[in-house]
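Colleagues,

For the teaching module next term, I've prepared a clean inverse folding example: a structure given as tokens, and then the sequence designed for it. I'd like students to try predicting residues themselves before seeing the answer, so please don't circulate the second half yet.
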């Protein structure tokens, strides 16, 4: 409760419909952002991520629910503070740099209320922070995509907003640049002690850049947690599948144990009766089969060697499962193996519809 009260940004039951009478695009979304925290909103295309960000920025009006920054209401059905008065910075997907202004002038743009000398000093400080002081007099077309991204970030940070919002900030970059740029952006945000919300549909991006992740599905925030929590302790089938590959099994649970198609599993929390459990492929391993050995036996159906690791698909009695091992595992297609769990399976809420209706 304490962190909730101390939150910098508090979004409560946020709801938005673009067409009266239709399903809401954002549906009772609730989450908080703490000071200096990077929150990623992660979800598939069309689930309402950008609309959520635009509501927080003030580009859209709130139908129901509220948005509060430092306890002050910015948006609710009766209040709409103009975007430029919210103290919120927005980094657009296409960076939106002014092509006719050099890097320094682009960054100075957000500081128009200050005298020229102070503007220039603050903009240069910002360029130093992003490691681009030497590029001050270059024009946007003379920069790489990653450099443009950093300038856009510097321009947003320069007026010292309370929080910044980044909409799919790495989507214009190729795979290699994406990774290095996201490391840089995270380190710049941390150096600037800045709070941020970043929207992405890329689970790896969210897991690597965010302090916490809010997983969004069909307009609703279905789970909020640290990257480790949402990855290792998904609460629903959707979260389990969206955050990476997983094995889902119907299970008959009794306390902290359950029987499943891959045998007896320990559970991450107590449950009773019919449940669905998730166990990630890297939380299973394989051992050599020999007659009379204990455990669930299966046959190697496929083997995907990926250099530093291997993914096996194993045929069990009535189903398949994926097992992710290191590259020293010797089994090949057709081998008889024993599948063994390394970690407890995660009990999902899908069979308990009343348990977690609200975030
Ligand atoms: P993506 O990752 O593809 O950008 P998203 O999760 O950000 O998707 P939104 O852009 O928020 O999703 O859109 C959610 C839904 O709302 C979509 O079905 C979209 O077509 C619809 N939508 C967004 N803006 C408007 C608008 N101004 N008028 C009508 N419908 C809209």
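(Answer key — instructors only)
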């Amino acid at each position: 409760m304490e962190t909730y009260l101390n939150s910098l940004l508090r979004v409560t039951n946020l709801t938005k419909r673009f067409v009266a009478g239709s399903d809401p695009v954002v549906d009772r979304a609730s989450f908080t952002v703490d000071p200096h925290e990077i929150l990623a909103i992660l979800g598939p295309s069309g689930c309402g991520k950008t609309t959520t960000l635009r509501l927080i920025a003030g580009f859209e009006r709130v139908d129901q629910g509220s948005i509060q920054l430092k306890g002050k209401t910015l948006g609710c059905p009766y209040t709409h503070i103009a975007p430029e008065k919210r103290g919120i910075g927005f980094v657009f997907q296409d960076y939106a740099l002014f092509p006719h202004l050099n890097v320094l002038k682009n960054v100075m743009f957000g500081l128009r209320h200050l005298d020229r000398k102070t503007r220039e000093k603050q903009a240069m400080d910002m360029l130093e922070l992003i490691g681009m002081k030497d590029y001050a007099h270059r024009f946007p077309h003379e920069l790489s995509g990653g450099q443009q991204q950093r300038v856009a970030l510097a321009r947003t940070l320069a007026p010292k907003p309370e929080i910044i919002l980044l909409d799919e900030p790495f989507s214009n970059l190729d795979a290699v640049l994406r990774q290095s740029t996201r490391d840089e952006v995270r380190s710049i945000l941390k150096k600037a002690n800045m709070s941020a919300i970043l929207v992405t549909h890329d689970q790896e991006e969210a897991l690597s850049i965010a302090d916490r992740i809010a997983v969004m599905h069909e307009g609703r925030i279905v789970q909020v947690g640290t990257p480790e929590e949402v990855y290792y302790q998904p609460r629903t089938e959707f979260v389990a599948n969206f955050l990476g590959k997983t094995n889902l099994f119907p299970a008959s649970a009794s306390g902290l144990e359950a029987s499943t198609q891959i045998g007896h599993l320990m559970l991450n929390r107590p449950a009773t009766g019919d449940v669905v459990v998730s166990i990630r492929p890297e939380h299973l391993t394989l051992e050599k089969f020999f007659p009379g050995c204990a455990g669930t036996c299966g046959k190697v159906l496929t083997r995907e060697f990926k250099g530093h690791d291997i993914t096996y698909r194993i045929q069990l009695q009535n189903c398949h499962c994926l097992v992710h091992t290191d590259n020293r595992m010797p089994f090949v297609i057709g081998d008889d193996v024993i599948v063994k769990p390394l970690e407890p399976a995660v009990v999902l809420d899908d069979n308990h519809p009343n348990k977690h209706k609200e975030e």
